[in-house]
Design a protein that fits this description.
Length: about 200
Amino acid sequence: MADSERAQRHRNRMQRKKEVVDAAIAHADREQGLLLVLTGNGKGKSSSAFGMMARALGHGMRVGVAQFIKGRSDTGEEAFFRTQGNVIWHVLGEGFTWDTQNLERDTETAQRGWAIVQTMLRDPSLDLIILDELTYPLKFGWLDLTTVLNDLKHRPPMQHVVITGRGAPDALCDAADTVTEMTDIKHAFRSGIQAQKGIDL
Ligand code: ATP
Ligand code: MG
């Protein structure tokens, strides 16, 4: 095939692609607050959520964060975002009792946490809310899924919410606008490498 013919084919192909993309963009003409769920066993759920947080802050938006499982208190994201304006940061899992398996206390802690989230979900000045690891209290039954779904549904119409955690319940994924499942293909931890600053925490 001559070079000119190859170039013409390429132009035709790109033109068809452009038409498809332009039509898709023209079709997506609404604006609304989104509910996103980042789930699955692979790495990248919380870090993706905090990437969106950086984007939102860059646009001058206000962001609220609620972390439901406090695995550690020394994460880079917490240290960094707490120094920024427009950020409200709640750690709601401090009282979770992994050792004693005290269901009553865990339920109480989770519900106290959800009450704080409810105040954020009623605050239209918050443009984005990140509910990090929310799937765990749902999975363990510490929070009532119906209540959570109902509160999410009645949030301000332009407020975005990102929920992270493994094993997101089907009903939550059904309610979401965007759902991503991170697939675990390989993780350094399994070859004996400990969590690395800046990458894992
Ligand atoms: P990250 O915060 O890095 O985006 P994540 O939110 O997707 O991870 P979590 O289930 O919240 O994953 O786990 C948090 C920690 O466990 C992180 O340090 C992460 O690197 C690590 N981790 C995530 N997935 C795996 C995995 N499949 N195997 C081992 N460790 C993992
Ligand atoms: Mg996480």
